[in-house]
Specification:
This protein has about 775 residues and is α+β, with helices and mostly antiparallel strands. Helix content is about 25%, strand content about 25%. Strand 29 and strand 30 (about 730-735) form a beta hairpin. Keywords: Coiled coil, Nucleus, Ribosome biogenesis.
Length: about 775
């Protein structure tokens, strides 16, 4: 009731009264609402069919599907455990890598093989430096690999194909510098395909006997904390006596084996025995025996041996183990697979050049095309504002030009080449002016002594020159001084201006070098990968392939006879279709934090791409979106770029290591990354920036100088847009005088301390410097 006593007066809330929202059940009705509305009725079959048509799966079906998938995964893991590492199956490959200089790997393996007291166990040493240990008590079979610690290539090859990697660390000395470097290499290149066990072992000397158990435990804790900061799920396992060896063997037996994607794509084999049919000749048939892993292998496929190359198969023998009359288990040939000559893949590395195509001048316009373009340009009518001059009308884009950017590029190219007849009399070598010219350092006279004899003066001069160029390019990116003794239209005749770096069209097939006629290219690289994966799945059902997990002997024909070092492990990997062919690889590289070396484009590097190694001279470009990518002259530390080079076709995923090789044969890791694509059509554009300075300024008009030095060059580059350091944009109006002064118009008032730029672009290609990295070449370099 109101204070006045009127019963009809109602209280009205004010503006500050809280208003609560009504409850909403969401996009669907609640379960209570559904039960209340249906009142126990069951949906008809028509409604169920409509749900099935819409792809709606009932909850119980989803639960059943999840249970089935889980059972399938458990069954697959059980089958893998019964095959890989089982006593009657394929031995589990375990690579033992020491990370300390005072660790004896062979004593570690002796400790493991002698830790379990079993009279029926066997320990066999193979010709390729492996130890195959069979333990009936654990019903397991192991293959221990001990690559030479100084042979990084062989260690990486063993780590790629291993099921387990055991790192052995000395508790007294810790991880050495070489061990830490090797740990980083394997972590980047091989870690996804392996399971890491960090093991603490006592040293070979008597220093650990003096050390108390408390200090030993503290050292182990410090090592474990150090490794946990870099890797996940690291737990150090002691390995000092037979009990520790038994625990480690049981852990290897009970662990879950993971199989990465890159191991499922292609077949591979570790050779337990090898021999040449004719070892006295230079080329012979190589016989490799071992267990086939990965997928099935066809005799029509090609195989790759690291350090030797790509070869064809003569035949494949599949064996079965049987006991002879003396009770000795020997492999007996069960089946022989022979290649079909009409189906066997060829070793063709390069494509045949088409003599009807002139790769140098395939898109250069003729004089008739120039005249036709001028007539068509004269007939184009545009709507322009009243009082617009002819020059200003040329900058106004019509509707037809906006629809077709390729016409704009052709008109611009025709404009640049219109005065080519005037320049025929100038005979200059263009290659001398492709790169920026720098003054060479004066010859240094050094005193002949023992220290100076070890120094390479030429190498120091080249390194100093490269550092100066990198600092200059970082301070003034892409800026080039216009030569005074050469016309700019001659010096930069291969360059062109772009209205927009992002949207302007550039034909990837235009003016290709001759080397691009010798490589292979896919119409659709991603579709090719899916097609190959489908073919590999279908090949599993065919009977003309050697079965996976079987003991086979590969007869590889026409292999150079090579004497391997003692303890060198030999691996064989099968190639997928077209992987023997040459193409253009695009690799995303990240500079390592430790390396401070400045890398220049077209500088020779050694690449480890997947399971292959080769040397090439890449060019670098920015890792950006779009169809055009800016060329980078230098690859600086802590930078991410894309390296483009010639190399054999490889399908991702494939990890990449890049090494810099020094004249003394020493190699240093400079970058890591992964394969991006195999695409020769990637446009890498080199930018050249011509700079000028304002001489006189009148509001938005300025007179610029020092960009060109004659009026002919000004008229040549007149259609190209100008920009300033402070963000102004403009164009050249006319030439003033005969000394290279020009009047420019900008979109704002120019300041006296500003600088005027003109951007010019041309496409660059990698050098034809592909070199397969072989063992024989590596030995010759070490001898030199």
């Amino acid at each position: 009731m109101s204070p006045t006593g009127d019963k009809n007066v109602v209280h009205r809330p004010g503006a500050l009264k809280q208003q609560n929202k009504a409850f909403k059940t969401g996009r669907h009705r609640s379960q209570h609402e559904i039960k209340r509305s249906t009142q126990g009725r069951v949906a008809d079959k028509k409604h169920a069919r409509s749900l099935k048509r819409l792809g709606v799966t009932p909850k119980q079906n989803r639960v059943n599907t999840a249970v089935q998938i889980r059972k399938q995964k458990l069954q697959a893991n059980k089958e893998a455990r019964q095959t890989i590492g089982a006593i009657d199956g394929v031995p589990q490959i375990i690579t033992v890598i020491p990370l300390s200089s005072d660790v004896n790997v062979f004593s570690i393996i002796e400790l493991l093989t002698n830790s379990i007291d079993d009279t029926k166990s066997s320990d066999i040493a193979t010709e390729c430096g492996a130890r195959i240990y069979t333990c009936p008590k654990l019903r397991s079979k192991f293959c221990f690999l001990t690559p030479t610690p100084t042979n990084f290539e062989n260690i990486l090859d063993a780590a790629k194909l291993s099921d387990t990697i055991i790192y052995v660390i000395s508790a007294s000395s810790g991880i050495s510098i070489e061990g830490d470097y090797l740990l980083d290499l394997i972590n980047v290149h091989c870690l996804p395909g392996s399971i890491i066990y960090s093991v603490v072992s006592s040293s070979t000397d008597d220093s650990m006997s003096v050390t108390s158990s408390t200090s030993r435990h503290s050292l182990s804790r410090n090592l474990e904390r150090f490794l946990q900061k870099r890797f996940a799920n690291v737990k150090l396992v002691p390995l000092d006596n037979e009990q520790d060896g038994q625990r480690l063997l049981r852990k290897l037996t009970e662990q879950k084996l993971t199989k990465p994607t890159k191991k499922c794509l292609r077949p591979y084999l570790f050779a337990q025995t090898y021999s040449y049919e004719n070892p006295k000749s230079s080329i012979s048939t190589l016989k490799l025996s071992g267990y086939l892993r990965g997928i099935h292998l066809s005799p029509n496929e090609l195989v790759y041996i690291p350090g030797l190359g790509t070869f064809q198969l003569e035949k494949i023998e599949q064996h079965q183990f049987q006991r002879d009359s003396d009770g000795i288990v020997k492999p007996i040939v069960e089946k022989v697979y022979l290649p079909q000559p009409d189906v066997q893949r060829s070793l063709a590395f390069e494509a045949d050049l088409d003599p009807s195509i002139n790769y140098q001048d395939q898109t250069w316009p003729t004089q008739e095309e120039l005249e036709k373009a001028e007539i068509e340009q004269a007939q184009i009518k545009k709507r322009v504002p009243k009082g617009t001059s002819e020059y200003q009308a040329a900058w106004i884009v019509s509707d037809e030009e906006e629809q077709d950017f390729e016409d704009d590029d052709e008109e611009q190219q025709n404009m640049i080449t219109a005065n080519a007849d005037e320049l025929e009399s100038i005979q200059l070598n263009q290659e001398e002016y492709e790169e920026e010219e720098e003054e060479e350092m004066d010859e240094l006279v050094m005193n002949p002594n023992n220290y100076d004899e070890k120094l390479d003066l030429e190498e120091d001069k080249q390194t100093l020159k490269k550092i100066k160029e990198a600092k200059l390019d970082e301070q003034f990116p892409d800026e080039v001084d216009t030569p005074m003794n050469i016309p700019a239209r001659v010096r930069f005749q291969k360059y062109r201006g772009l209205k927009s770096f992002r949207t302007t069209k550039w034909d990837p097939k235009e003016n290709l070098p001759e080397e691009y006629g010798r490589i292979y290219q896919f119409p659709n690289f991603r579709a090719m990968i899916k097609q190959i994966q489908t073919e590999q799945e279908d090949n599993h059902e065919k009977q003309d392939h050697a079965q996976v997990h079987s003991y086979v002997t590969l007869y590889i024909k026409d292999v150079p006879v090579n004497r391997f070092e003692p303890g060198h492990h030999i691996f064989v990997s099968g190639l997928l279709p077209h992987e023997q062919c040459l193409s253009v690889l695009n690799i995303v590289l990240n500079r390592t934090n430790d390396s401070e070396i400045v890398l220049k484009s077209k500088e020779r590097l050694i690449f480890h791409v997947g399971f292959r190694r080769f040397a090439s001279a890449p060019i670098y470009s920015q890792h950006s979106h779009g169809d055009k990518h800016k060329f980078e002259r230098f690859f600086r530390p802590r930078q991410t770029l894309v390296a483009t080079c010639f190399g054999p076709i490889t399908y991702p995923p494939a990890s990449v290591l890049a090494f810099k090789e020094f004249p003394d044969g020493r190699q240093e890791l400079v970058a890591t990354g992964s394969l991006l694509s195999v695409n020769p059509d990637r446009l890498v554009l080199k930018r050249v920036v011509l700079s000028g300075h304002p001489f006189k300024i009148q509001k938005k008009t300025a007179v610029a100088r020092f960009m060109f030095f004659n009026p002919e060059d000004i008229n040549w580059f007149k259609p190209i847009e100008l920009r300033t350091r402070w963000g102004r944009r403009g164009h050249i109006k006319e030439s003033l005088g005969t000394h290279g002064h020009m009047k420019c118009q900008f979109d704002g008032i120019l300041k006296s301390q500003d600088t005027i730029f003109m951007n010019l672009y041309k496409r660059v290609y990698p050098k034809w410097t592909y070199e397969p990295f072989s063992i024989q070449q590596h030995k010759e370099e070490d001898m030199q």
